[in-house]
Design brief:
By secondary structure, this protein is an all-alpha fold. It has helices spanning about 15-35, 40-50, 50-60, 60-85, 90-105, 115, 125-150, 155-175, 185-200.
Length: about 220
């Protein structure tokens, strides 16, 4: 992990939005390094270079602060997946982009993925609901595309999408834990190729001229 951002002087005055962003960045460093339960609001205030009362002006509790970080990263993951599906009509590129979204999160220097996937707060319902929502939204984005292109049922499309999203998540974490022995672009391409061989076997719906092609033809 990269070195911590130097703490700012306690006399520095910032607009509320900028201060909130600063506090979230400091909290992310502390939570990633120590875990939720070991982290203290004192540590976060010190990292941000503010007094603890200032920290509490923005976040009433450690849980509220953690959930705000979860919202940021979970929303970003779901948005990246939706953007991957909407960016092109080439399904092969869509599969590659979906894989890339997970590898980008796992490989980010902040190690923020630990807040989402390796939290020691898993038994907290509010945290669990946010992670499950992000996974569900990612699956739905992929499922919507599969349904639109192949005409399979919602249940079938969601199961296929869950397989694609799950493989991206599991493989990306395995890749990181193994020391990134495969270059990131190669790893993404390998997983995309594996997923594509399965997705491409499902036929597309009829084209405007009445022809039917496979998903691999787009």
């Amino acid at each position: 992990m990269t070195s911590h951002t130097p703490a700012l002087g306690r006399t520095t005055r910032l607009p509320r939005s900028a201060r909130r962003k600063q506090l979230l960045a400091a909290a992310e460093e502390v939570f990633v390094a120590q875990g939720y339960h070991a982290a203290a609001m004192d540590d976060i205030a010190e990292r941000a270079g503010v007094s603890k009362p200032v920290l509490y002006q923005h976040f009433q509790s450690k849980l509220e602060l953690y959930l705000a970080l979860l919202d940021t990263h979970c929303d970003a993951l779901a948005s990246r997946t939706r953007a991957a599906m909407a960016a092109t009509t080439d399904n092969k590129d869509r599969v590659r982009s979906a894989m890339q979204a997970y590898f980008d999160l796992i490989d980010h220097e902040s190690e923020a993925f630990r807040l989402v996937f390796e939290s020691d707060l898993r038994n907290e319902s509010a945290a669990r609901e946010r992670v499950e929502r992000a996974e569900r939204e990612s699956i739905e984005a992929v499922a919507d595309t599969i349904m639109a292109d192949t005409g399979v049922s919602r249940d079938h499309a969601e199961l296929l999408a869950a397989g694609l999203v799950g493989s991206a998540h599991t493989a990306a974490r395995f890749w990181l834990a193994g020391g990134r022995r495969v270059p990131k672009e190669d790893a993404e391409a390998l997983l995309a190729a594996l997923a594509w061989r399965g997705i491409a076997s499902f036929p597309l719906q009829a084209e405007p001229d009445g022809q039917v092609s496979s998903a691999g033809n787009r």
